[in-house]
From TrEMBL:
It is an enzyme of class 3 (hydrolase). Keywords: Endoplasmic reticulum, Glycoprotein, Glycosidase, Hydrolase, Membrane, Signal-anchor, Transmembrane, Transmembrane helix. InterPro entries: 6-hairpin_glycosidase_sf, 6hp_glycosidase-like_sf, Glyco_hydro_63_C, Glyco_hydro_63N, Glyco_hydro_63N_sf, Glycoside_hydrolase_63. It is found in: Endoplasmic reticulum membrane. One of its GO terms (biological process) is oligosaccharide metabolic process. Its main location: endoplasmic reticulum. It comes from the Eukaryota. One of its GO terms (cellular component) is endoplasmic reticulum membrane. Cleaves the distal alpha 1,2-linked glucose residue from the Glc(3)Man(9)GlcNAc(2) oligosaccharide precursor. It catalyses: N(4)-(alpha-D-Glc-(1->2)-alpha-D-Glc-(1->3)-alpha-D-Glc-(1->3)-alpha-D-Man-(1->2)-alpha-D-Man-(1->2)-alpha-D-Man-(1->3)-[alpha-D-Man-(1->2)-alpha-D-Man-(1->3)-[alpha-D-Man-(1->2)-alpha-D-Man-(1->6)]-alpha-D-Man-(1->6)]-beta-D-Man-(1->4)-beta-D-GlcNAc-(1->4)-beta-D-GlcNAc)-L-asparaginyl-[protein] + H2O = N(4)-(alpha-D-Glc-(1->3)-alpha-D-Glc-(1->3)-alpha-D-Man-(1->2)-alpha-D-Man-(1->2)-alpha-D-Man-(1->3)-[alpha-D-Man-(1->2)-alpha-D-Man-(1->3)-[alpha-D-Man-(1->2)-alpha-D-Man-(1->6)]-alpha-D-Man-(1->6)]-beta-D-Man-(1->4)-beta-D-GlcNAc-(1->4)-beta-D-GlcNAc)-L-asparaginyl-[protein] + beta-D-glucose. The keyword Endoplasmic reticulum applies. Pfam families: Glyco_hydro_63, Glyco_hydro_63N. This is Mannosyl-oligosaccharide glucosidase.
Length: 761
């Protein structure tokens, strides 16, 4: 899809662009305040929690050709707004970024703003300053010839320097725009901030020495005098080019990238008008898609929801590079740890959302499945592009749960977490979106039928070609079916259990399943990191949630087979039967994990070795024990459902006025240790609760229909109210929420699955 070639696909930095092409062009924004001469050491570039920005994130972003955000940096005394637009044309077309803002009260010396273009691979670039405009001319094989302009507004004003400083020749202040060009290894272009700082300090020292000679000991130093660029390197060019504007008060500049297609020209004066028109289009499409105003939500709630969707779309990135992968499965529980050293994979690409631009700026497998539920509702084709990109990383059905591609990504991850192991699975939430695609496809078919061959109500905006084109939709479903079948086969073969407990039949599900990658306190592969499990760990464990995921996958594969995708005998009923036999605890009336313990009556001389251990339930009320219900594996008439709903609704177990706790308040591990999944409220699981209640229980006759409807209404109200309150108080969406106070916890902004609040609304 060439319309998706260029985008804001560098979510790890506050603002930047790149194409979905490896080893080519990337751009980015940097800034620092001038009041403190040491601020150059704290240049803003990549999103960092330590920067303490009071606000950043997209208020509107359509995922394709428009986005706008505000970045408020009180520590550096500057507020910046970015508007991004695209114009279609050859080789991905042209794009522009309108940057406006102001220095805040207290910013007496102004701020330095830098915009750079960096080339990772083969190609040429050169910058010149022409009539107060930085002009870049270049070419690459993939993008062809291009021209870029950084255009400062005529109204921009630099900070005023003392008269004595204006007489120093070395001081290059007062310019509308100045440049810097350097040649660096292509693999280092992503280090633009560090490379810029390395050049900035020696130049500042020379200027300070020149200033000292004019009036030793008496002349006041100014950030603008020390840290303004002087066009070094522009004559020879380079593969990393910076344009700098030093400003005070209100400021503006445009960054315009134009391809060689003359029909895709962008006039600097029209960026604001184009952005304004697309803002109106976005708002209308948002209401058409989600209908929040029609449901009675006020303007502030709608604005929060728009920001949630936009921040998710603005967090989509294109990543390319090698990952560290072990050629061997990782040993467990005291097995010999003699495996081959991890190797860098062949470089590959991934187009994916990022859970947090500051803390998790890369692809995460189980997060992605939740994120795409919202993306797909907004733009089916964009979502399918992401799913296909993930599918293309699959190796025999295995997909690395964390995609750490290239040195830039590895720089953000502790070394002990970088290696991906082929026996480490992750919840298959990507497959939620296979179901979602099938539903959307059925809706389109119904519209066709209602219109007697003509569509009655096309989905709003772009992004529906894969639904409207029957042949393309069939191809897409076939590819998604291959993804589902491959993942199921991988899970069945790599995560099989080996416990003393087995189900009654001899199916592939009878021996149960065990997450690989356990430690004493964590099961990272489950996605529920520190949720309590058996202690000590054992290869005889059977994990309830893993079995539920596999039963869910089998049911989906059975459904795909009915639509002519794949084949084989329907097996979902057997998977669910084995789940109930292995994991339902009649004494506790709940689903539980299973482990093994030594059989105290075992006689080594007389008894069979297989009787040396006996199975034992490991029960912790919380998200794990809910999973069969969340995935719709518990029938509406089953007494098991009643026990699960009672657990959900009990304030001493999971219920709070802010959402459902991850672990029961009565559990001995509640709030203990790392306390990551031992109490805090997570929006992805709360969303699954609501979705399952709505789809599987509250509209289906049964003994618990009324209770399901009551829980749905109350839980939905509580979640929306608390997420909205925390957003109003902090301007951020959060990774998790405190079950006692409702306050946001963990990293922020967390614009992965917390953005499911839009679908909850």
């Amino acid at each position: 899809d060439s319309s998706l070639l260029w985008g804001t696909y560098r979510p790890n930095i506050y603002f930047g662009t790149r194409p979905r092409v490896p080893n080519t062009l990337m751009t980015g924004l940097m800034w620092f305040g001038m009041d403190d001469p040491t601020n150059w050491q704290r240049i803003r570039h990549s999103c960092e929690l330590g920067d303490n920005l009071a606000e950043y994130g997209y208020s509107r972003h359509n995922g394709r050709d428009f986005g706008e955000q505000t970045m408020r940096d009180s520590d550096q005394a500057v507020e910046i707004r970015s508007q991004f637009i695209k114009v279609p044309g050859e080789r991905g077309g042209s794009w522009a970024a309108g940057i406006t803002g102001k220095t805040l009260e207290g910013g007496k010396e102004g701020a330095a703003l830098m915009y750079y273009f960096g080339m990772e691979g083969n190609g040429t670039m050169k910058m010149s300053i022409e009539d107060d405009v930085a002009v870049i001319r270049g070419q690459t094989e993939e993008l062809g010839e291009f021209t870029a302009r950084i255009v400062p507004a005529a109204s921009n004003k630099p900070p005023r320097l003392p008269k004595k400083l204006r007489k120093v020749k070395a001081v290059k202040a007062g310019q509308k725009v100045a440049g810097l060009a350097m040649n660096v290894p292509g693999d280092d272009v992503w280090k633009a901030k560090d490379l810029f700082m390395e050049r900035l300090l020696p130049a500042a020292r020379k200027r300070a020495q020149a200033i000292e000679k004019v009036d030793p000991g008496n002349m006041p130093l100014s950030g603008a005098a020390l840290f303004s660029l002087d066009n070094t390197g522009l004559e020879t060019g380079g593969n990393l080019l910076f344009a700098q504007m030093v400003v005070k008060g209100e400021f503006a500049f445009d960054v315009i990238y134009e391809c060689s297609d003359k029909s895709a020209r962008i006039d600097s004066g029209t960026i604001t008008a184009v952005a304004g028109a697309r803002r109106k289009e976005f708002d209308a499409r948002f209401e058409h898609t989600f209908g929040l105003a029609a449901k009675g939500f006020d303007t502030e709630h709608v604005a929060m929801a728009r920001s949630a969707l936009s921040s998710l779309l603005g967090g989509i990135g294109y990543f390319h590079g090698s990952g560290l992968v072990s050629p061997d499965p990782k040993p467990e529980y005291g097995e010999p740890d003699e495996i081959a050293a991890p190797e860098l994979s062949t470089p590959y690409s991934l187009f994916a959302t990022t859970p947090s631009r500051a803390f998790f700026p890369r692809g995460f497998l189980w997060d992605e499945g939740f994120s795409q539920l919202l993306v797909g509702q907004w733009d089916n084709d964009l979502s399918m592009q992401v799913l296909l990109s993930w599918r293309n990383t699959s190796m025999g059905g295995w997909i690395a749960r964390e995609q750490i591609l290239g040195s830039e990504a590895r720089s953000k991850v502790p070394e002990e977490f970088q290696v991906q192991y082929p026996n480490f699975a992750n919840p298959p939430t990507l497959l939620f979106n296979v179901e979602a695609f099938m539903r959307r496809r059925q809706e389109i078919a119904s519209l066709h039928k209602a219109g007697e061959g003509g569509l009655v109500d096309l989905p709003a905006g772009e992004g529906s070609r894969m639904l409207l084109d029957h042949e393309l939709a069939n191809r897409m479903l076939s590819e998604l079916g291959q993804l589902a079948n491959g993942m199921l086969e991988y899970f069945l073969t790599s995560q099989r259990g080996s416990s003393a407990k087995t189900a009654s039949d001899e199916s592939a599900f009878a021996s149960g399943f065990r997450w690989r990658g356990r430690s004493e306190s964590h099961t990272l592969t489950s996605g529920l990191d520190d949720y309590p499990r058996a202690s000590p760990p054992s290869t005889g464990e059977l994990h309830l949630d893993l079995h539920a995921w596999i039963a869910y996958m089998q049911r989906l594969v059975d459904e795909l087979a009915l639509q002519g995708v794949g084949g084989g005998e329907p097996m979902a009923d057997k998977a669910i039967k084995a789940l109930d036999e292995l994991h339902w605890n009649e004494d506790e009336n709940m689903y539980c994990d299973v482990t093994v313990r030594a059989n105290e009556d075992y006689d080594e001389l007389e008894d069979d070795e297989g009787n040396a251990e006996v199975p034992k339930f490991v029960c912790h009320r919380g998200y794990v024990s809910l999973l069969p219900m969340l995935l719709g594996l518990v029938p509406a008439e089953s007494p098991k459902l009643g026990h699960i709903l009672d657990m959900i609704e009990d304030p001493e177990e999971l219920w709070t006025e802010y959402g459902l706790r991850s672990l029961s308040k009565s559990d001995k591990f509640y709030g203990k240790g790392e306390n990551y999944w031992r109490g805090p409220i997570w929006i992805n699981i709360n969303y699954l609760v609501l979705s399952s209640l709505h789809t599987n229980y509250m509209h289906i006759e049964g003994p618990f229909q009324e209770q399901a409807a009551r829980i749905y209404t109350r839980l939905r109200t509580n979640l929306i109210a608390n997420i909205f309150k925390q957003y109003q108080d902090t301007a951020f969406f959060w990774e998790q929420y405190n079950p006692e106070t409702g306050t946001g916890k963990g990293t922020h902004p967390f614009t992965g699955w917390t953005t499911l609040v839009v679908l909850i609304m």
